[in-house]
Amino acid sequence: MRKLLVATRNVGKKREIRSLLGHLPYEIVFPEDVGLYETPEEQVLETEQTFEGNARKKAEYFQKRARVPTVADDSGIEVLSLGGLPGVRSRRFAMAAPGQDIDLANNNALLQRLAGAPTDRRGARFRCVVVLLRDRGAVPRVFEGSCRGRIETEAKGTGGFGYDPLFYSYDLEKTFGEASQKEKDGVSHRGEAFSALADWLEAHPL
Ligand code: ITT
Q1: What is the C-alpha to C-alpha distance for residues 75 and 90, in angstroms, rounded to an integer?
Q2: Domains along the chain with CATH numbers
Q3: 103 is catalytic
Q4: Ligand 1, CB within 6 Å, residue ranges
Q5: Which end of the chain is more exposed for a tag (fewer CB within 10 A), N or C?
Q6: pTM of the entire predicted model
């Protein structure tokens, strides 16, 4: 079976993507599975101001190292009243120190930023941009997804990862932290982007 490299080291993303792409006739592999361990270069890869720009950089970097078709996911949460923050800075929002629980630090930073804000200033959306790069010279294909909700005043639920316990989904009427994986996948930014990728791959096999 042909390999499809998913260029992420985020454990929560890996779990979701494995299940979102599981039905495709490809062997889904992650960097460590093909011997690509983390490099210092990777830490400074995401310098762009857009999800698409960062996803492209990750896809190009990993395709070059692995020489197999590669997809990268750049994603995050945008709070409308904060002008779209944390946005592309979602992972680094709290500037957590090494060894700290990054998700917890980010969630606390977001809660603090919105302290006292009324419901109508807590509107948010998750976004996910996926870039597929088939080979070095190929045109990158871009797939997007988003979902709407608002930021709770405290964490709810223990499911998911990242900002999930703070994100009250308008579709599910509960937080992603309280949702099952299947429920989240059915409405999430990542579910939408990866099902668009899956549809494209069915029509354009690698
Ligand atoms: P890779 O670059 O290795 O894929 P990363 O964690 O650095 O992993 P991003 O740069 O795309 O990934 O940052 C995304 C951040 O946005 C991530 O750390 C989460 O905090 C948050 N995020 C993205 N999708 C999420 C989701 O479905 N649920 C909760 N938080 C999410």
Answers
A1: 8
A2: 3-203 (3.90.950.10)
A3: no
A4: 8-10, 13, 46, 73-76, 90-91, 103, 106, 126, 160-164, 176, 188, 190
A5: N
A6: 0.97
